[in-house]
Amino acid sequence: EKSNGERSDSPSTGRGAPGSTRMLTRLRNPDSKLCQMKNQQNQQNQQNQQVAAAAHEANKLNKESKELVVSSPSDVSRMNPKKEIVLKGNMNNYFKLGQEGKYRVYHNQYATNSFALNKHQHREDHDKRRHLSHKFCLTAAGEFKWNGSVHGSRVLTISTLRLTIIQLENNIPASFLHPNWASHRSNWIKAVQMCSKPREFALALAILECAIKPVVMLPIWRESLGHTR
């Protein structure tokens, strides 16, 4: 067996004669390990070329059109299945802005996060709160909340107003109310639960305001208060 791949002929018959025998080398022998390794390398190179060509075609199709529109069944038969698979995979796997749905829950960091403001903005916020604290209560105890649904039918709105007025009275400690308020409280609650018109709600709030001691209210409220009956 020769290693250079040339043919070896017998001396009796001569070179190229019909009875000459041909010697196989390791590269030409399909059962040898060297030939099998060479075939594997060739297959791997072909696969790499196919993958590169498919990626190039997919990028080209992606640049030309983002969506693949099929107008008739004949278009499906003319399409290459490999191109269709590559195009579908690329269109479904790519990230699209907004598909996570976080744009629906927006938070202003300048309003919720105190560390987002600089030193000058912190000073302005402190001065504003100090100025407003002389007129309004900015603590958590002074927050006003509706006791019920704000949107709805007339019956639902009236029920929300009744519950909110009663809740407002419950939040005021008894020491800040008139000493005789305990005897009038039950009748006042019954009157509030029967209110259905704006004039009736205003009367219930006026009675509650008269029962609250003036020390609870800030000077800005007493100075702007008009004549009531």
From TrEMBL:
Positions of region (Disordered): 1-58
Gene Ontology biological process: regulation of transcription by RNA polymerase II
Skewed-composition ranges (Low complexity): 39-50
One GO term describing the cellular component: NURF complex
GO molecular function: RNA polymerase II cis-regulatory region sequence-specific DNA binding
Transmembrane segments: none
Family matches, as InterPro entries: BPTF
Name used for this protein in its record: BPTF factor
Biological source species: Nothoprocta pentlandii
